[in-house]
Design goal:
Blueprint lengths: L6 H8 L4 H7 L5 E5 L5 E3 L3 E6 L3 E7 L24 E8 L2 E9 L8 E5 L2 H10 L7 H12 L6 H8 L6 H20 L9 H13 L3 H13 L3 H12 L6 H9 L1
Parallel strand pairs: 1-7
Antiparallel strand pairs: 1-5, 2-3, 3-4, 5-6
Helix pairs in contact: 3-4, 4-6, 5-6, 6-9, 6-10, 7-9, 8-9
């Protein structure tokens, strides 16, 4: 049976192709838009959860209100409350300049803002990384980077350019590198069989090694990252080297993702 999409859905899809242009048209005030989330990302409008192969289910971001209690969420039964997308972005702007950004996944929660509708994930990545994340407001930049990392589109190359831009604040570059490291670790583990029951123990051992500052430990960590044959260990080593501020780390992450 042939299914035909309603006309209003076709119109919404067509009108979602130029986010940058629509943001220019709406020069000031709050705007919101949404896009498809990558697999493993879900939320309830406040808590955002990213299910990572390396570390199991983890809360990756607390949404609008940092004061609420997450104890009432059943993280062993995500299907009961955690909805798989879309990623929702709300921008607060003054004369076209973004002064605040809020993220949510799941049910619609942003009100009293001009809704720009659905946006293609790759277009959202482009605007979030290349426009909004280059602001001088660190909180805005960090959240824009996180929003891009959740899009159902490759974001690591745009984030890599951001991480290598010496004109940006170090906090912004570190935030970009962090999410590239997450992507690289996931990339390793998504291409391997299911991990055994002891994988978590081995990962914690790598973490402990990454906290040590002596040259012998550092050399061992690099050997695990570059030529390790245990996916759990290699992914953990790649991730923690990505947090280390070692100038070689970005080249390592790029080689993994390429």
């Amino acid at each position: 049976m042939l299914l035909v999409a309603p006309a209003f859905l076709i119109a919404a899809s067509s009108s979602a192709q130029d986010l940058r242009g629509r943001l220019r048209t709406a020069e000031s005030g709050d705007v919101t838009f949404h896009f498809d989330a990558r697999p493993g990302v879900c939320g309830d409008g406040e808590v955002i959860v990213r299910e990572r192969a390396e570390a199991g289910r983890t809360i990756s971001y607390v949404g609008r209100n940092s004061d609420f209690n997450t104890d009432d969420r059943d993280f062993d039964n995500l299907d009961s409350w955690c909805r798989p997308g879309p990623v929702r972005v709300r921008l607060t702007r003054e004369t076209g300049v973004v002064t605040d950004i809020q993220l949510a996944v799941g049910p619609a929660i942003f009100t009293e803002a001009r809704d720009l509708g659905v946006v293609a994930p790759d277009e959202a990545v482009d605007v979030l990384v290349n426009d909004i994340a280059r602001t001088r407001v660190k909180r805005v930049a960090s959240r824009a980077i996180h929003g891009a990392s959740m899009a159902d589109a490759p974001a690591w190359q745009a984030l890599l350019a951001l991480a290598r831009d010496s004109t940006l604040a170090s906090d912004v570059r570190r935030s970009a590198t962090r999410w590239i490291a997450v992507e690289a670790a996931d990339h390793i583990l998504e291409r391997t069989p299911a991990l055994d029951a002891e994988a978590e123990v081995r990962r914690h051992a790598v973490f402990a090694l990454s906290r040590r500052k002596d040259e012998r430990s550092r050399t061992a960590l690099w050997q695990m990252a570059e030529a390790g044959d245990d996916p759990a260990v290699r992914a953990a080593a790649v991730y923690w080297l990505g947090q280390s501020e070692d100038p070689r780390a970005l080249r390592l992450l790029e080689s993994v993702l390429r």
